[in-house]
């Protein structure tokens, strides 16, 4: 099963926590600030949207675990 994930900010950033938001259309977005991401975030010029398989979701989980482990 494929998942659509939009990367709005660097999930491995040491300066900001990974903020995941699920939009009504099912796209998971990284918020680029503590503000709530809008539905236009994935369509903005600062993000890219890709179709990912379960391997990519495991990488996403690993990035979150690395970030949590540094806190």
Write the layout of secondary structure elements.
Layout: E1 3-7, E2 20-22, E3 28-30, E4 48-52, H1 54-69
Q: Return Rg in Å.
A: 12 Å
Terminal CA distance reads 32 Å
Strand tally: 4
- The computed structural class is alpha+beta
Largest sheet: 4 strands, mixed
Q: What is the quaternary state of this protein?
A: single chain
In percent, how helical is the residue content? 10-25%
What can you tell me about this protein's structure?
- With 71 residues, the chain is α+β, with helices and mostly antiparallel strands.
- The chain has one domain.
- It is built from 1 helix and 4 strands; from the N terminus they run E-E-E-E-H.
- It has one helix at residues 54-69, and strands at residues 3-7, 20-22, 28-30, 48-52.
- Strands 2-3-1-4 form a 4-stranded mixed beta sheet.
- Strand 2 and strand 3 (28-30) form a beta hairpin.
- Mean pLDDT is 58; it is low at 34-51.
Concise description?
This protein has 71 residues and is of the alpha+beta class.
Tag the structure with descriptive keywords.
71 residues, alpha+beta, 4-stranded mixed sheet, 23% strand, flat
């Amino acid at each position: 099963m494929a998942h659509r994930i939009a990367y709005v900010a660097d999930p491995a950033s040491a300066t900001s926590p990974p903020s995941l938001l699920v939009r009504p259309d099912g796209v998971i977005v990284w918020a680029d600030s503590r503000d709530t991401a809008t539905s236009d975030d994935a369509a903005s010029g600062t993000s890219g949207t890709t179709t990912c398989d379960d391997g990519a979701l495991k990488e996403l989980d690993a990035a979150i675990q690395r970030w949590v482990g540094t806190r």
